[in-house]
Amino acid sequence: MPQILKKPLFLKALLPLALAGAIGAAAPTFAADVYVGGRAPRAVVAPVPAGPLTLEQALGIAYGIGLVTVQNTHFDGNEWEIEGRDTYGKWIEVDIDARTGEIRNVDRSII
Fold first, then answer.
1. DSSP character for 105?
2. pTM here?
3. Which of 15, 76, 88, 102 is 20 to 30 A away from residue 43, measured at CA?
4. pLDDT of 77-100, one tens digit each?
5. Strand bridging mode 103-108 / 67-75
6. Tell me: the pLDDT tens digits for 43-73?
7. Are 97 and 75 a contacting pair, CB within 8 Å?
8. 70 CB contacts (<8 Å, ≥6 apart)?
């Protein structure tokens, strides 16, 4: 009498459970967000020598608060306006007093 081959228990129950577990374990990876929350890191600003700031000194101050790439610079008599991207790829504009090196304003993109 020929015996009818039955599917092993592994194929019926354990294999679907193993596949469901593997997909469930990978779900948090698929749902990961690229945006890293929180504020950009702040650095200590080095003292600036007396007198008008050069562009290089103003850029050094801007790099210290998170500026990574520069897209535009503008000198307006008493302040440097520097625009670019921060470490998260977001737009940032930094206004720096040309006499003292004080950071007057920082505008960051919220998008």
1. E
2. 0.55
3. 76
4. 899 999 999 988 899 999 999 998
5. unpaired
6. 555 555 566 889 999 999 999 999 999 999 9
7. no
8. 59, 62, 82, 83, 84
What is the chain's length? 111
Q: Strands 79-86 and 67-75: what pairing?
A: antiparallel
How confident is the model over 24-46, as pLDDT tens digits? 666 555 444 444 555 655 655 55
Would strands 91-97 and 79-86 be described as parallel, antiparallel, or unpaired? Answer: antiparallel
* Contact between 61 and 96 (Cβ < 8 Å): yes
Residue 51's SS3 state is coil
Nearest to 106 by CA among 61, 76, 71: 61
Which residues in the chain belong to E strands, given as ranges?
Answer: 67-75, 79-86, 91-97, 103-108
What is the residue whose two structure tokens read 């007057």? Answer: 104
